[in-house]
Amino acid sequence: xxxxxxxxxxxxxxxxxxxxxxxxxxxxxxxxxxxxxxxxxxxxxxxxxxxxxxxxxxxxxxxxxxxxxxxxxxxxxxxxxxxxxxxxxxxxxxxxxxxxxxxxxxxxxxxxxxxxxxxxxxxxxxxxxxxxxxxxxxxxxxxxxxxxxxxxxxxxxxxxxxxxxxxxxxxxxxxxxxxxxxxxxxxxxxxxxxxxxxxxxxxxxxxxxxxxxxxx
Length: 216
Description:
Layout: E1 5-11, E2 16-22, E3 27-31, H1 37-44, E4 48-53, H2 59-62, H3 65-76, E5 82-83, H4 90-93, H5 96-103, E6 122-125, E7 128-134, E8 143-147, E9 152-156, E10 159-160, E11 163-164, H6 174-184, E12 193-196, E13 202-203, H7 204-210
Parallel strand pairs: 3-4, 4-5, 9-12
Antiparallel strand pairs: 1-2, 2-3, 6-7, 7-8, 8-9, 10-11, 12-13
Helix pairs in contact: 1-3
Organism: Gluconobacter albidus
Pfam family, one: Lactamase_B
Domain Metallo-beta-lactamase: 15-198
């Protein structure tokens, strides 16, 4: 098992947690670069980025993907693909500039992924497998990335410490979200660390025991 290290980089006025996963070989992937690309580049330092992964299409998670891709490809002189989310979030990815204008946030761009993902896929980066699970409800195409080897899940805006993601959007679905969390996340070992899209990390065991949205 290749150990992966996770660095949390809060970005944008919405304080979304961009995550940098890296290994001892100096390679990295960036998950949910919502914005503040210069800050992300500074945190990356000399790491060589293999890919940019997106959990869903909201501006605070995907608004920096296109500019970060351009900056990294110029710096590394090689392609850096944007991968994910599920295709059902394409409409959100194509309305990021409109979303940003509504919040008065600049520097965000629409993004066209190099490819979308589907639940059940296994991605291989940094010498490690990342399993994709489709967990809709917050958005129709929301996915999570599960790193079984390091007992870690990149949950985006599905599961948080003591709560779950918002579903009060026109396309939200609270039942689908709870069902997806129960099916794809609560079956993980108790000590699995949940890297949340906002706020501090938690564990699957803690949320199974105490999260009021998940206690039967």
